[in-house]
Every structure is written in structure tokens, then in C-alpha cells.
Amino acid sequence: MMRAYLVTVALFALAFSLAFASDPSPLQDFCVALKDKEYSESAVFVNGKFCKDPKQAKAEDFFFEGLNIPGNTENLQGSNVTTVNVDQIAGLNTLGISLARIDFAPYGQNPPHTHPRGTEILVVLEGSLYVGFVTSNTDNRLFTKVLNKGDVFVFPVGLIHFQFNVGKTNAIAIAALSSQNAGVITIANAVFGSDPPINPDVLTKAFQLDKNVVEHLQKLF
């Protein structure tokens, strides 16, 4: 009887440990990513990036300059995202954080998109932004807010979200993400601009649109 009880307790303990498991914390102070051309047989593969010998790390591995420079917003969306992730700062490797500056022309937008690997927290530095996110099926609830200078908003990981400049002047925002490389999927580009294209019959039925409209949209993207 006692043996059966102990086995039951052990199984419950194992189940709980698995249920609450998460990515482990780094086992070293840092793991500076190597560039592709710097890979060697001695490199260690960690979180998608090879790491250099810590003794060879330097201050430049943790540094980025130029975030004060406005991005070019002369495009169809009227916005520009300057990303600062592990590809720009090699020292971010394994640290689970990254940054982005978003510039908006008047009435420009960062169109509906999602970050599959990171939660985003955004602060407005200049201007006014209409922002929001949509929850997953089946509720599909829309949470929106108009943000002004100094306001902060959070976009939960994986959910579709957007930012739109409702002002007549330029707007600037800084976003922090809970991943060294959160990834981005712009919904319209992914659906209508995939390579190779999604069969128009699929999109016609999914969006309840005329097939000619779908084919036109695919040409645009």
C-alpha cells in the first residue's frame, strides 16, 4: 500500500514539474552570437545562434547606435520599423529581449501583424496612436486604445495587433519584445503574398470574396 502511495505521489510530482516547465535561464553570463562566416567546429549551438568564446567578447557585442535616426516612412503603409534584435546586437543571444523603433508618417500604420515568439510592450514618444489587438478564436475580442505621448500598451504574445497614427504629425514609438528574435508575420503579406501563392479558391472561401478580388489582392502583394 505504502509503495503504491509513493509511486502515485512521484507521478503527480513529475506531472506538475512538466506542467510548469519553461525555457531554462541562461547557464552563463552571456552567449554572444557569431556571424555566419565566423562559425567553426568548436562553436556551440544555443537558441538558434552559435556562441563565441566568452573571452573574445567585447563591448561592441552589446552595442547598437542609430536608434535616434528616423526611419524612412515613404512607403504604402507610411511607417518604418527599425529592429534591434540578436541580428543587430550579438550579445542579445539567449537573453530573451529585443527592441524596435517605429516611425509613423501622418495617418501611417504598422499593419495587422503578430509576433509568434514574443510579447510586445510599446511606449509612445511622440504623437498619437490608435492601437489594438484581437484575442484568439472563438471570442475574437478587440482591445483598443488611443495612446498619447508617454502612454504604454501591451500586446500579448502571438495575438494579431496594429498601430495607426491618428494625428496630423509624425509619431514615434519604442517597442520592447520578450524574445531575442520575436519574429513578425504581417497578415496581409502572409495570406496574399505567400510564395508560392495560396490557391485562390481557398482564400475566396475563407474571406467570402469574389475570386477576381482575391486574385487582384495576390497581385498587389
Question: How would you summarize the topology of this molecule?
Answer:
Layout: H1 2-19, E1 44-46, E2 49-51, E3 79-84, E4 98-104, E5 109-114, E6 120-126, E7 129-134, E8 142-147, E9 152-155, E10 160-165, E11 171-177, E12 185-186, H2 187-192, H3 200-207, H4 211-220
Antiparallel strand pairs: 1-2, 3-4, 4-11, 5-10, 5-12, 6-9, 6-11, 7-8, 7-10
Helix pairs in contact: 3-4
Task: Walk me through what this model shows.
The structure is a single chain. The protein has helices at 2-19, 187-192, 200-207, 211-220, and strands spanning 44-46, 49-51, 79-84, 98-104, 109-114, 120-126, 129-134, 142-147, 152-155, 160-165, 171-177, 185-186. Helix 3 packs across helix 4 (211-220). 19% of the residues lie in helices and 29% in strands. It contains four helices and twelve strands. The strands form three sheets. A five-stranded antiparallel β-sheet has the order 3-4-11-6-9, with no helix packed on it. Residues 5-24 have low confidence and may be disordered. Strand 7 (129-134) and strand 8 (142-147) form a beta hairpin. The chain has 221 residues and is α+β, with helices and mostly antiparallel strands. The protein starts with a helix and ends with a helix.
Beta strands, count: 12
Note the beta-strand portion.
Answer: 25-35%
The assembly state of the depicted protein chains is single chain
Mean pLDDT: 86
